């Protein structure tokens, strides 16, 4: 595509193909930035360069974690070329290798996330010391906190032309100088190795499975094929002869069979689909004892897409699995996007049309698979967490115009108070942990985790109501679970709020 055909834009988002860095091939056999797929990085560079003064203020790229170590003969060279290229275009760049499962997400998927800011941009002007930005203050650190490993700090310059970087960077050294978190400014690099810090809710493979009755028969493994799957998953030592006539032993360790349901899933690959026995495809065991592969909805959930995101009458189940094997875990992108938005606009991002509200959450399957009297229910994913009955719980009255909004258990909600000045000053916001909305005449039922308390306005939900822009406290909530039925409770604080502990409500 010609650069002049691309509209001017503020944010460029991309993931240049990663096959040349992928774990599917050893680093010694991967083409890296010089491979057939890797060279597409230079198309990104070309577009940024040709945009000139109209290049985007912000960039957001993704690749596999091995990018920082490629190629095997010159560790870190490819990433150094990318950083040097972006520096020459005027960008400050930070990066982070993030495993989605380390932050409560349902798949063990490690990827390199790269965020850049033109020097004259709002975010670039907020960058203080490189160390503080990477470890505490920056876009990625705010989205995904971590603890720096001791004695892993690395600082250096990337010198020379791009050709000289390609020829000589880190040549002859065993390890890449890039840590899994870092920043580059004017070709000067600060990096460190990061250990994730997270104590929130968790999701596992088992949390994202649909009921067994919803699974088409074609996804179950027959008794005849089961030994083939067990062989593919098992440990092996096989004598082989190379094309040159050399004998060698091919060996590989065993894999869990079936996959663990109480842990995040393994990394999905593009070959997840199809019924042929494979070492890499997920296999789960049902309460009935039967083994099966994952259906497309479950693969979508492991990447945190809405149910049926890839559904189309002309798209096969195998193709849907291929699409998910190529995809990212959406929760990572969402959190980075939210963090970047806050840095640019100094306010929280709010969508009036969240993606999970735009999709049909019911599994789309051929109806004749089920008995006529079978009730089709919505299969919602679950979360793994432990309730703490000693934590503070805020119960807040839901006004009439907001009751419908709180009538279903969507993954996230916003709760707004009245005018800030009317919120009880005796409630310590820093102590609050859980929230339950109170429906007048019914009581409380749904339990939420309080993720953020901030100043906002009612306009974030209702844009056309009077007094919608008056300052209010906004609670950003994450749905956890519901009581079997509504429980009556009396509100204090002018019949609007009650500040208590979770155990007092659950044990009533």
Strand content: 15-25%
By DSSP, the count of extended strands is 19
Rg result: 26 Å
Q: Would you tell me the structural class of the helices and strands? A: alpha+beta
| Distance separating the two termini | 65 Å
CATH class of the domain at 3-196: Alpha Beta
Largest sheet, strands/sense/barrel:
7 strands, mixed
Low-pLDDT stretches are 19-31, 360-367, 373-377
Spatial arrangement of strands, main beta sheet: 1-2-4-3-7-8-6
Shape: globular
Structure description:
With 508 residues, the protein is of the alpha+beta class. Among the domains are: 3-196, Rossmann fold, CATH 3.40.50; 392-506, ph1033 like fold, CATH 3.10.590. Helix content is 19%, strand content 25%. It contains twelve helices and 19 strands. Strands 1-2-4-3-7-8-6 form a seven-stranded mixed beta sheet, sandwiched between helices. Strands 15-18-17-16-14-19 form a six-stranded mixed beta sheet. A two-stranded antiparallel sheet has the order 5-9. Helix 2 (77-88) runs antiparallel to helix 5. The radius of gyration is 26 Å and the shape is globular. It starts with 10 loop residues before the first strand and ends with a helix. The model is unreliable at 19-31, 360-367 and 373-377 (pLDDT under 50).
């Amino acid at each position: 595509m010609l650069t002049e055909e691309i509209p001017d834009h503020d944010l460029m988002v991309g993931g240049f193909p990663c096959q040349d860095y992928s774990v599917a091939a050893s680093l010694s056999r991967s083409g890296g930035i010089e491979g057939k797929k890797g060279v597409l990085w230079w198309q990104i560079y070309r577009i940024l360069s040709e945009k000139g003064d109209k290049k985007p203020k912000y960039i957001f790229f993704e690749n596999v974690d091995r990018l920082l170590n490629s190629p095997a003969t010159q560790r870190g060279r490819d990433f150094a070329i990318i950083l040097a290229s972006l520096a020459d275009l005027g960008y400050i760049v930070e990066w982070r290798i993030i495993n989605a499962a380390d932050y409560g997400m349902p798949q063990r998927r490690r990827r390199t996330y790269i965020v850049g800011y033109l020097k004259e941009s709002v975010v670039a002007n907020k960058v203080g010391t490189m160390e503080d930005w990477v470890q505490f203050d920056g876009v990625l650190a705010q989205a995904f906190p971590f603890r720096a490993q001791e004695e892993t700090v690395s600082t250096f310059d990337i010198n020379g032309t791009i050709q000289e970087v390609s020829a000589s960077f880190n040549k002859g050294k065993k390890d890449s100088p890039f840590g899994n978190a870092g920043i580059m400014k004017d070709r000067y690099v600060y990096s460190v190795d990061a250990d994730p810090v997270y104590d929130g809710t968790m999701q596992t493979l088992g949390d994202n499975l649909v009921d067994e009755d919803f699974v088409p028969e074609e996804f179950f493994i027959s008794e005849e094929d089961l030994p083939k799957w067990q062989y593919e998953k098992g440990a092996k030592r096989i004598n082989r002869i190379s094309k040159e006539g050399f004998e060698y032993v091919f060996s590989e360790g065993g894999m869990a069979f079936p996959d663990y349901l109480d842990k995040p899933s393994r990394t999905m690959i593009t070959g997840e689909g199809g019924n042929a026995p494979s070492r890499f495809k997920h296999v789960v065991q049902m309460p009935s004892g039967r083994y099966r592969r994952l259906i497309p909805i479950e693969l979508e959930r492991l990447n945190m897409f809405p149910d049926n995101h890839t559904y189309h009458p002309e798209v096969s189940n195998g193709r849907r699995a291929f699409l998910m094997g190529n995809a990212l875990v959406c929760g990572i992108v969402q959190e980075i996007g939210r963090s970047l938005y806050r840095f640019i606009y100094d306010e929280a991002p709010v969508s009036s049309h969240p993606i999970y509200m735009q999709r049909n959450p019911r599994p789309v399957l051929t109806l004749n698979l089920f008995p006529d009297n079978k009730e089709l229910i919505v299969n919602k994913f679950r979360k793994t967490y432990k309730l703490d009955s000693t934590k503070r719980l805020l119960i807040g009255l839901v006004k009439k115009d907001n009751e419908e909004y709180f009538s279903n258990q969507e993954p996230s909600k916003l709760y707004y108070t009245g005018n800030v000045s009317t919120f009880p000053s005796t409630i310590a916001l820093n102590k609050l942990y859980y929230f339950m909305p109170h429906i007048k005449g019914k009581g409380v039922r749904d339990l939420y985790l309080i993720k953020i308390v901030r100043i906002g306005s009612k306009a974030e939900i209702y844009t056309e109501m009077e007094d919608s822009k008056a300052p209010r406290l906004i609670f950003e909530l994450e749905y956890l679970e519901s009581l079997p039925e509504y429980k009556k409770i009396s509100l204090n604080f002018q019949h609007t709020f009650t500040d208590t502990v979770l155990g007092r409500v659950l044990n009533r």
